[in-house]
């Protein structure tokens, strides 16, 4: 497991490690910051990171949580565990054309474990795990930053030394309290980023362990190099960005372990210098390790490619408008503008939004757009940093800047649109790993300022102020993520041009029953994006319920015209056409919906209602039967079958269907009620009574339940109980049809019986 390689022309790597403290300046020397023992430093980081996001622990399932968790069948016990390895993050088959190809089975597995332990969809357990994961990652950052900022050195006993305790503490605190991380922690789906970061860091620390001196005095351990590859693969199975750690490990090896001077290497390559073997690049140890990393990475990517299929994910123009621009210039300039906005979120994370698509950031279409300044500023800073990283005579400065830029840029590459189209404009969650590089550069910049500043304490107070402001911002942003209403409304001031923001505010209001306010936001969403079919569909639904059928039909017709395969809009259009008594058109719309979504139980249910209105009873029963086959718990379809069979005199068949339904949905009181009615007509009074009483126990305030039980007692001859339940029914609903007449008949009968008895 141990590979031994020494170079006769170069000093032993272990000796180089032990000389590092003397040959390189100590970053902490100029940093005016707290010096704490390692254990206390980690405790402080853990506590601060917990305080930032603790108020999100009792938040709801919000935004993408609904699709990834609540509607994801992979979380349920009845779904075989093996399905997780063939489905995407959202529970769809990877082979499906609609799959986003986000392959994160280990993250979904943790959701499933959360669900099983909680016994259902209770968000507290999910949120607590996210908070713990962020605290763990932040604590690991103390060790990671101590290596990145102070170098890698071991004691004679093989323990790694922290050569920059103050700087590593500051950088870890910056990471722990960065407000841009709120989405990863407070949104449950952000667990993908948290788990990815955890194994990402473990891979890096494992790679560093490969160079710990062992008893045989060998230079590095193959076991830990391979272990870092395995941990990188696990990180990728949590989220795609995880694979980038293998590239960063290679960069770290070249810069820190082999102290490669990149500029010198480039010059030698350009001049075809024969002394390349002395540069450190061609040392067998480095090449061997990089070969292991790259081979492992290529194998992992190939296996993932085979699992997810060869087709790229399908995204729409509203998801990422720049990627659909015809002009290469427009695409390039907007991609770079997106990079500058990501950089700004790291520098000033004040304007945060759950979604940056749908017009939130209008496209730059000409060089006269003032936003070009942002691109120029970004590249001016990057080029300046790259020049310093390559050309500085200070090897310590070169190493820190290169590592900072590496950790800033390399983890961001999968989200950059350079290799493939991504499904977003800006996503705060993808900055979780790149923020490591930002923290390195910030801390190094602080050390340079401290070196020049005469009043170092004032500078330290300023940095402490930044940390405190970030803590407050994290707490405020976490509270906004606790509910969809707060989250969606918080985005209105940040992205007022984002149609999806207005759509989500409208949907939230509609779910709460505030239809008038919902209409306003849906209309604004359609105004901002005239092709927003989901907003048209939801607005059409509300207008249909308010009996504004003409406008509802216009909106739904436009939606299916824009997106002909939009099954839900076709079904809703059919419902409107049915209400307008245009039955043939309604039937055609329903079948079109089923054509585009073959497993559509709700559409079969509505089709059955149409056939029932047309007295096509057999067709209606077949449609409802299809609905129950596709969705066995479809209570409305079962009920309608029982009622139709009951009304047409098929009592035996109605009873059989009712019993079948109750076996599948044993606690549905509406099914108990319908079957009880059938049994009463079949003179099975005792069984009918038991079902009526069970239904009333489940729903005691249903006037019809008491009224029909009273009718049963009336037929049965149990007149006192009939009188009691008639009175309860009338108390609950004085206008209940037929109940008052039946009650008056019963009273007259009781009066006659009393006269006879007298």
Automatic annotation (TrEMBL):
<keyword id="KW-0802">TPR repeat</keyword>
<dbReference type="InterPro" id="IPR019734">
    <property type="entry name" value="TPR_rpt"/>
</dbReference>
<keyword id="KW-0472">Membrane</keyword>
<dbReference type="InterPro" id="IPR052346">
    <property type="entry name" value="O-mannosyl-transferase_TMTC"/>
</dbReference>
<feature type="repeat" description="TPR">
    <location>
        <begin position="601"/>
        <end position="634"/>
    </location>
</feature>
<feature type="transmembrane region" description="Helical">
    <location>
        <begin position="372"/>
        <end position="391"/>
    </location>
</feature>
<feature type="repeat" description="TPR">
    <location>
        <begin position="499"/>
        <end position="532"/>
    </location>
</feature>
<dbReference type="GO" id="GO:0004169">
    <property type="term" value="F:dolichyl-phosphate-mannose-protein mannosyltransferase activity"/>
</dbReference>
<keyword id="KW-0256">Endoplasmic reticulum</keyword>
<keyword id="KW-1133">Transmembrane helix</keyword>
<feature type="transmembrane region" description="Helical">
    <location>
        <begin position="286"/>
        <end position="305"/>
    </location>
</feature>
<keyword id="KW-0812">Transmembrane</keyword>
<dbReference type="Pfam" id="PF13432">
    <property type="entry name" value="TPR_16"/>
</dbReference>
<comment type="similarity">
    <text>Belongs to the TMTC family.</text>
</comment>
<feature type="domain" description="DUF1736">
    <location>
        <begin position="311"/>
        <end position="383"/>
    </location>
</feature>
<dbReference type="Pfam" id="PF14559">
    <property type="entry name" value="TPR_19"/>
</dbReference>
<dbReference type="InterPro" id="IPR013618">
    <property type="entry name" value="TMTC_DUF1736"/>
</dbReference>
<feature type="transmembrane region" description="Helical">
    <location>
        <begin position="39"/>
        <end position="57"/>
    </location>
</feature>
<feature type="transmembrane region" description="Helical">
    <location>
        <begin position="403"/>
        <end position="424"/>
    </location>
</feature>
<dbReference type="Pfam" id="PF08409">
    <property type="entry name" value="TMTC_DUF1736"/>
</dbReference>
<keyword id="KW-0677">Repeat</keyword>
<feature type="transmembrane region" description="Helical">
    <location>
        <begin position="186"/>
        <end position="208"/>
    </location>
</feature>
<dbReference type="GO" id="GO:0016020">
    <property type="term" value="C:membrane"/>
</dbReference>
<feature type="repeat" description="TPR">
    <location>
        <begin position="533"/>
        <end position="566"/>
    </location>
</feature>
<feature type="transmembrane region" description="Helical">
    <location>
        <begin position="458"/>
        <end position="476"/>
    </location>
</feature>
<feature type="transmembrane region" description="Helical">
    <location>
        <begin position="220"/>
        <end position="237"/>
    </location>
</feature>
<dbReference type="GO" id="GO:0005783">
    <property type="term" value="C:endoplasmic reticulum"/>
</dbReference>
<feature type="transmembrane region" description="Helical">
    <location>
        <begin position="430"/>
        <end position="449"/>
    </location>
</feature>
<feature type="repeat" description="TPR">
    <location>
        <begin position="703"/>
        <end position="736"/>
    </location>
</feature>
<dbReference type="InterPro" id="IPR011990">
    <property type="entry name" value="TPR-like_helical_dom_sf"/>
</dbReference>
<feature type="transmembrane region" description="Helical">
    <location>
        <begin position="106"/>
        <end position="125"/>
    </location>
</feature>
<dbReference type="GO" id="GO:0030968">
    <property type="term" value="P:endoplasmic reticulum unfolded protein response"/>
</dbReference>
<keyword id="KW-0808">Transferase</keyword>
<protein>
    <recommendedName>
        <fullName>dolichyl-phosphate-mannose--protein mannosyltransferase</fullName>
        <ecNumber>2.4.1.109</ecNumber>
    </recommendedName>
</protein>
<comment type="pathway">
    <text>Protein modification; protein glycosylation.</text>
</comment>
């Amino acid at each position: 497991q141990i590979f031994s390689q020494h170079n006769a022309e170069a000093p032993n790597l272990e000796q180089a490690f032990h000389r590092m403290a003397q040959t390189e300046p100590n970053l902490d020397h100029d940093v005016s910051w707290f010096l704490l023992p390692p254990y206390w430093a980690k405790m402080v980081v853990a506590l601060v990171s917990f305080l930032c996001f603790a108020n999100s622990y009792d938040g709801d399932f919000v935004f993408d949580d609904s699709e990834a968790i609540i509607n994801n069948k992979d979380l349920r016990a009845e779904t075989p565990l093996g399905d997780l390895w063939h489905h995407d993050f959202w529970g769809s088959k990877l082979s499906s054309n609609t799959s986003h190809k986000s392959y994160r089975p280990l993250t979904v597995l943790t959701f499933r474990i959360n669900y099983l332990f909680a016994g259902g969809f209770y968000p507290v357990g999910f949120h607590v795990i996210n908070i713990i994961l962020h605290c763990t990652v932040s604590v690991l950052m103390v060790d990671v930053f101590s290596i990145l900022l102070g170098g890698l050195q071991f004691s004679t006993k093989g323990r790694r030394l922290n050569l920059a305790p103050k700087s590593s503490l500051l950088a870890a605190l910056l990471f722990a309290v960065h407000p841009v991380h709120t989405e990863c922690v407070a949104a449950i789906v952000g667990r993908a980023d948290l788990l990815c970061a955890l194994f990402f860091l473990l891979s890096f620390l494992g790679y560093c362990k490969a160079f710990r001196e062992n008893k045989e005095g060998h230079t590095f351990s193959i076991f830990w190099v391979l272990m870092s590859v395995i941990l990188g693969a696990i990180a990728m199975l949590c989220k795609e960005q995880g694979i980038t750690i293998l590239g960063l490990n290679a960069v770290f090896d070249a810069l820190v372990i082999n102290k490669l001077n990149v500029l010198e290497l480039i010059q030698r390559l350009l001049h075809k210098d024969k002394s390349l073997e002395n540069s450190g690049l061609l040392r067998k140890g480095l090449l061997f390790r990089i070969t292991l990393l790259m081979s492992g990475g290529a194998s992992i990517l190939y296996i993932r490619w085979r699992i997810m299929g060869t087709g790229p994910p399908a995204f729409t123009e509203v998801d990422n408008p720049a990627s659909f621009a015809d002009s290469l210039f427009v695409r390039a300039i907007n991609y770079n503008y997106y990079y500058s906005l990501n950089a700004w979120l790291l520098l000033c994370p004040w304007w945060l939004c759950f979604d940056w698509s749908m017009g939130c950031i209008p496209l730059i279409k000409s060089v006269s757009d003032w936003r070009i300044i942002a691109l120029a500023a970004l590249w001016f800073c990057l080029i300046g940093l790259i020049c310093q990283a390559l050309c500085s005579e200070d090897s310590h400065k070169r190493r820190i800047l290169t590592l900072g830029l590496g950790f800033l840029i390399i983890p961001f590459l999968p989200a950059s649109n350079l290799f493939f189209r991504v499904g977003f404009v800006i996503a705060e969650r993808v900055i979780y790993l790149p923020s490591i590089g930002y923290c390195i550069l910030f801390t190094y910049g602080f050390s340079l300022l401290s070196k020049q500043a005469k009043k170092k304490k004032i500078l330290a107070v300023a940095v402490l102020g930044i940390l405190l402001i970030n803590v407050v911002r994290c707490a405020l942003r976490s509270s906004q993520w606790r509910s969809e209403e707060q989250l969606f409304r918080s985005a209105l001031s940040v992205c007022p041009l984002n149609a999806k923001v207005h759509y989500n505010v409208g949907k939230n209001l509609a779910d709460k029953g505030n239809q008038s306010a919902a209409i306003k936001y849906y209309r604004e969403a359609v105004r901002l994006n005239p092709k927003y079919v989901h907003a048209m569909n939801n607005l059409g639904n509300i207008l249909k319920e308010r009996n504004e059928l003409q406008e509802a039909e216009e909106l739904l017709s436009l939606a299916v015209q824009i997106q002909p395969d939009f099954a839900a809009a076709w079904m809703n259009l059919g419902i409107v056409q049915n209400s307008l008594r245009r039955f043939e058109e309604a039937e055609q719309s329903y079948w079109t919906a089923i054509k585009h979504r073959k497993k559509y139980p709700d559409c079969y249910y509505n089709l059955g209602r149409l056939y029932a209105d047309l007295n096509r009873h057999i067709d209606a029963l077949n449609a409802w039967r299809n609905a129950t086959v596709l969705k066995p718990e479809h209570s409305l379809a079962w009920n309608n079958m029982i009622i139709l069979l009951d009304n047409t005199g098929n009592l035996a068949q109605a009873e059989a269907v009712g019993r079948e339904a109750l076996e599948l949905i044993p606690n549905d009181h509406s099914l108990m009620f319908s079957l009880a009615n059938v049994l009463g007509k079949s003179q099975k009074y005792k069984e009918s009574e038991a079902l009526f009483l069970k239904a009333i126990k489940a729903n005691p305030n249903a006037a019809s339940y008491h009224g029909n039980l009273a009718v049963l007692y009336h037929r049965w001859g149990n007149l006192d109980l009939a009188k009691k339940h008639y009175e309860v029914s009338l108390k609950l609903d004085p206008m209940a049809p037929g109940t008052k007449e039946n009650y008056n008949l019963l009273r007259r009968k009781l009066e006659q019986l009393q006269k006879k008895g007298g």
